[in-house]
Structure formats: C-alpha cells, structure tokens
Amino acid sequence: MARPGSFWRNPFSFLFTRSDEEERLAAYVIREHERGRPLEEILEDPYLRNRATPEEVARLLDRPEVVHALGETTVAAARQQA
After folding, report:
1. Counting Cβ atoms within 10 Å, is residue 22 exposed (0-12), middle (13-18) or buried (19+)?
2. Which of 31, 56, 53 has its CA nearest to residue 42?
3. pTM of the model
4. CB 43 within 8 A of CB 26
5. What's the pLDDT at 46?
6. Residue 11 has what pLDDT?
7. How far is residue 65's CA from residue 51's CA, in Å, rounded to a whole number?
8. How far apart are CA 78 and CA 82, in angstroms?
9. Would you kindly state where each structural domain of the chain is located, as residue ranges?
10. d(Cα 45, Cα 35) in Å, to the nearest integer?
C-alpha cells in the first residue's frame, strides 16, 4: 500500500497505476499466447471473459508488454475484430 504522504507528492498518480487483476490478466494472455494459442481464442476464454469487461480487454491490448509479446499485427487484427 502506498504511504499517505506519497499521494500529496503526485495527486494524480492513481490515474497511471494498474491493478493487480489487470497485471494477472496481461500475464495470462501473454502466457497462453506463448503456449501457442491464437489471440482470438484467448480473448474468448471464459477465464478472461469472467474477469474483464470488453473495455478492460481493450486496455490489455494497449499494454506495451502485451503488444511486444504478441506482435503489433496480431494485436491490431484483434482490435479490428472487437
């Protein structure tokens, strides 16, 4: 947990933080893709659907580590299908 004084140093820091759940979902997408599953299949996975809204999934596809791991063309194609 952040120290109370750290809020006053940067009162907008909460806008740029990522939740632990979002971190886990990004790791899941990357891990499943590394196992050979296509991104379209991963995005339809009940594990992801039950834990993220369509907006949250879209944010996952904007994360630099996800784009790097999956490739820009794969992520761009998934964005067009959404």
Report:
1. middle
2. 31
3. 0.72
4. no
5. 96
6. 57
7. 19
8. 6
9. 18-81
10. 14
